[in-house]
Amino acid sequence: MKIQWLGHSAFHIETTKAKILIDPFFSGNPSFDESTRKDAAAGLDYILLTHGHGDHVGDTIALAKETGATVVANADLAAWLGSRGVSALEMGNTGGTIHLKGFSTTFVNALHSSAQITEDGVSHSLGSANGLVLHFDDAPTLYHMGDTDIFSDMALIQELHQPDIGLVPIGDRFTMGGAVAALACQRYFKFGTVLPCHYGSFPIVDQTPDLFLAAMEPASTKVEVPAVGAVVTV
Where is the Metallo-beta-lactamase domain (predicted)? Predict the structure, then answer.
C-alpha cells in the first residue's frame, strides 16, 4: 500500500486494486502542493469523505465530475453532493459498512460537527462526523479518524477492526491536540504505523507534530511524518 499525505487531512491511498482519495481539500489549502494534483486524480476510483466541513469535502465535486470517481460519504452529505451534480455516490452511516472494489469502508464515530454554509448564507447540517475504517483485500487495515477528540469507545473500534495504520488528527483547536492524540493511539490502539495529520496548514492549528512526537516516546508504534506530497509505503 502507498499512502501519500496531501496536506491537512487529505490522503491518496493506492493498492493493487484501487486508487482512493480521502478528504481531498486542495483548493484553498495552504499546505497543498499543486504539483501533486494531476497524479492524485489519475485513475481515481473513489473519494471518501469523513464529514461535511469545507476543509474535508474540498475539491470533491470537481474531482468527481472530472474523474468519474465514486464518492463515499455519510447519507446526508452524499445527498447534498448529489444535489450539486455528483452522480456516482455510495452513502452510508455510522456503524455501516460498504463493500467496494478491493476493500470495504466502515463508518465509525468521531466527536466533531458536520455542516456547510452555502452562498445564500444558510447553514446546512450534513449528517454525522465519522472516522473511516478501510479493510483491504491486499493491504493492511487503515483507520482515518477524521476530525475528532479522544473518546473511550475507540477501544471498541480497536476490538472490532484491529486497524494496522492510523491517520490521526493532532492539530488542536478543532481536533485533539498532539498529547491527547498520542494518548488515544497508545491507550486504545495497537497500530503498527501512525501518520499524523490536520496540522501545519492554517495558522490557528499546530504547525508541527512536535507535541505528538514527544508524547509518543517511548512507543512501539512507528510514527511516519512525511513531507506534504511524500509517499509512505506500508
Answer: 7-198
